[in-house]
Amino acid sequence: MSVRVIPETEHLEFIRGRRSASFLQVPAWGRVKSEWRRESLGWFRDDELVGAGLVLYRQLPKIKRYLAYLPEGPVIDWEDEDLATWLRPLTAHLKQQGAFGVRMGPPVVTRRWSAAQVKEGIADDGVRRLGELAPLERGSVGARVVSQLNHLGWHPQAVEGGFAAGQPQYNFVVPLRDDAGDPRTEDDVLKGMNQQWRRNIKKAAKEGVEVTSVSGADVGEELKAFHDLYAHTAQRDHFTPRPLSYFRTMCEALGAEDPDRIRVWFARHEGDLVASTISIRVGGHAWYSYGASSTEKRDVRGSNAVQWAMIQDALAAGADVYDLRGITDTLDADDPHVGLIQFKVGTGGEAVEHAGEWDLPLSGALYKAFQLYLKRRG
């Protein structure tokens, strides 16, 4: 097995041949993260391309040494019982490029919990964390990946409440295929939702909430409407919003790569924007990426309406899963994060734990200095 730099066109063609790959591993994501240097890598067995990865290089202050980051990647055969075959040529290449450390997020599931289990956990005063519940399923591939990474000298990144410094370790997803692999219908998905969600979807329709969408490369001035509502949401919910320019770059880069890659959604009631979201799709995997909602007119249930429209769109596209992205692992009813989990649990999907992000120091001294720099930066 060998690793070398490949053209973005070859990288994209490989991704298109996969049923599922993270949108953080498509070539265009490197253009979104313009503050990082990007590189497309290919894994070759003889002359056959068998894996690909987007590497983002973050430079240390004042010296030309880098943290090499592969978010939710690379796209390789994680079921291989000898991961060293894949990872050793990767780290050798990155070291030649000046990397003092490597960070990656293997896209493998270690545990799953049903919506019913999560709901029961929240109601149980004796349960505080998702990990305290017996999982519906333990991922054998995920467990093997974790074991191999420990053996190969990789270090899991500490998480607090399920959120790592990079990508979330816990997500909430709605399967769009049944256990036999057949597509679920809209009725199937609706029946899996809780009564409150179904009622809210019906109420939004009765109130006359209208949902529209525009594709990534053609969002134009409509993106500002999303961002205005997003900034309002950030102020209300006390988080730091990304600038409009970030979303414009995101829509232009991903939309240029594939017209079906990214879409911006708007739920309006009597002309007032009450909810707006961004969805992304790669192959059979559809994501809810960003969302915003108005403080006024919450009773018309625009957030439920726009989510349902995105799920319907994913079903129509033949997607395998609708991914609502990150949740914390808290099930404490008094925790402010639990409301987000309850909203997502209402869709009737499942909570999934991934292997998380892992680091491999290539230069011990520089890696320690980098860790110290991050702590000081806060």
From TrEMBL:
Q: Which SUPFAM superfamilies match?
A: Acyl-CoA N-acyltransferases (Nat)
GO BP annotations listed: cell wall organization; peptidoglycan biosynthetic process; regulation of cell shape
- Provide the alphabetized UniProt keywords: Acyltransferase, Cell shape, Cell wall biogenesis/degradation, Peptidoglycan synthesis, Transferase
Mind listing the GO molecular function terms for this protein?
aminoacyltransferase activity
Keyword Chloroplast among record annotations: no
PANTHER family membership: LIPID II:GLYCINE GLYCYLTRANSFERASE
Report the family membership: Belongs to the FemABX family.
Q: What is this protein called?
A: Peptidoglycan bridge formation glycyltransferase FemA/FemB family protein
Q: Which organism is it from?
A: Nocardioides luti
